[in-house]
Amino acid sequence: MISASEYRDYMELLESTNLSQEALLIIIKFCVDIRGPKISKNYILKVANDFIERNILTEEQAEKEAEAESDSKEESDD
After folding, report:
1. How far apart, in whole angstroms, are the C-alpha atoms of residue 42 and residue 18?
2. Is-contact 28 59, C-beta < 8 A?
């Protein structure tokens, strides 16, 4: 469960950028997959802002990027 302030921060991000809600959900899942369930809101926002800076704003773009980064991480772990 997220706090009211965390919810507000995510809503402000969505309202102030062109990031889709679906893309944000993919980013959150991506962050949880990498760091586990105890990740901070600040980490999620940092990753989301990185995606935004790279113009990764849609669900499809976010899925592709998260998959590519996950594959890259798995290869570096081998």
Report:
1. 19
2. no
Integer Cα distance of 55 and 62 in angstroms: 10
Residue 50 region by backbone torsions, left for phi larger than 0, else alpha for psi between -120 and 50, else beta = alpha
pLDDT in tens, 37-66: 899 999 999 999 999 999 999 999 999 999
DSSP-H helix ranges across the chain: 4-16, 21-35, 41-53, 59-77
End-to-end CA distance of the chain: 34
Q: Evaluate whether 52 touches 19 at the Cβ level (below 8 Å).
A: yes
- The stretch 23-40 carries a mean pLDDT of 94
Q: Global pTM? A: 0.89
